[in-house]
TrEMBL record:
Belongs to the bacterial ribosomal protein bL31 family. Type A subfamily. PANTHER family: 50S RIBOSOMAL PROTEIN L31, CHLOROPLASTIC, LARGE RIBOSOMAL SUBUNIT PROTEIN BL31A. This is Large ribosomal subunit protein bL31. Part of the 50S ribosomal subunit. Gene3D superfamilies: Ribosomal protein L31 (4.10.830.30). Pfam families: Ribosomal_L31. The keyword Protein transport does not apply. GO terms for cellular component: ribonucleoprotein complex; ribosome. Binds 1 zinc ion per subunit.
Length: 70
Protein backbone atom coordinates (compact mmCIF):
# COMPACT_ATOMS: atom_id res chain seq x y z
CA UNK A 1 0.00 0.00 0.00
CA UNK A 2 1.39 3.43 -0.93
CA UNK A 3 2.21 5.79 1.92
CA UNK A 4 0.77 9.31 2.12
CA UNK A 5 -2.07 8.97 -0.41
CA UNK A 6 -4.89 7.83 1.88
CA UNK A 7 -7.16 10.28 3.74
CA UNK A 8 -6.97 10.52 7.53
CA UNK A 9 -9.54 8.22 9.17
CA UNK A 10 -10.70 9.63 12.50
CA UNK A 11 -13.50 9.56 15.05
CA UNK A 12 -16.63 11.60 14.21
CA UNK A 13 -19.74 12.31 16.33
CA UNK A 14 -23.09 12.36 14.50
CA UNK A 15 -25.86 14.20 16.36
CA UNK A 16 -29.55 13.93 15.43
CA UNK A 17 -32.14 16.63 16.09
CA UNK A 18 -33.94 14.16 18.41
CA UNK A 19 -30.86 14.04 20.66
CA UNK A 20 -29.48 10.69 19.53
CA UNK A 21 -25.67 10.66 19.38
CA UNK A 22 -23.79 8.20 17.15
CA UNK A 23 -20.02 7.80 17.36
CA UNK A 24 -18.34 6.42 14.24
CA UNK A 25 -15.17 6.74 12.20
CA UNK A 26 -14.95 8.66 8.95
CA UNK A 27 -12.72 10.73 6.69
CA UNK A 28 -14.90 13.80 7.38
CA UNK A 29 -13.07 16.67 9.04
CA UNK A 30 -15.96 17.78 11.25
CA UNK A 31 -18.89 16.41 13.24
CA UNK A 32 -22.23 15.89 11.48
CA UNK A 33 -25.76 16.98 12.43
CA UNK A 34 -28.77 15.03 11.10
CA UNK A 35 -32.46 15.94 11.00
CA UNK A 36 -33.72 12.33 11.06
CA UNK A 37 -32.07 9.13 12.31
CA UNK A 38 -33.10 5.53 12.89
CA UNK A 39 -34.50 6.32 16.35
CA UNK A 40 -36.84 9.10 15.22
CA UNK A 41 -37.67 8.19 11.59
CA UNK A 42 -41.39 7.29 11.25
CA UNK A 43 -40.66 4.09 9.32
CA UNK A 44 -38.47 2.67 12.09
CA UNK A 45 -40.60 3.91 15.01
CA UNK A 46 -43.85 2.45 13.64
CA UNK A 47 -45.57 5.84 13.40
CA UNK A 48 -45.63 5.75 9.62
CA UNK A 49 -48.48 7.45 7.78
CA UNK A 50 -49.38 7.11 4.13
CA UNK A 51 -49.89 10.51 2.54
CA UNK A 52 -52.45 10.15 -0.22
CA UNK A 53 -52.00 12.49 -3.15
CA UNK A 54 -55.07 12.49 -5.37
CA UNK A 55 -56.20 8.92 -4.71
CA UNK A 56 -52.98 7.40 -6.01
CA UNK A 57 -52.65 4.99 -3.09
CA UNK A 58 -56.17 3.65 -3.59
CA UNK A 59 -55.58 3.33 -7.32
CA UNK A 60 -52.34 1.39 -6.69
CA UNK A 61 -54.01 -0.89 -4.13
CA UNK A 62 -56.94 -1.52 -6.48
CA UNK A 63 -54.64 -2.29 -9.40
CA UNK A 64 -52.69 -4.93 -7.46
CA UNK A 65 -55.65 -6.23 -5.39
CA UNK A 66 -54.17 -5.17 -2.06
CA UNK A 67 -56.74 -5.12 0.77
CA UNK A 68 -57.29 -1.70 2.35
CA UNK A 69 -56.40 -1.42 6.06
CA UNK A 70 -58.83 0.66 8.13
Amino acid sequence: MKQGIHPVYKSVIITCSCGNIIETRSTMSQNLTLEVCGKCHPFYTGKQRIVDTGGRVERFNKRFNIPVKK
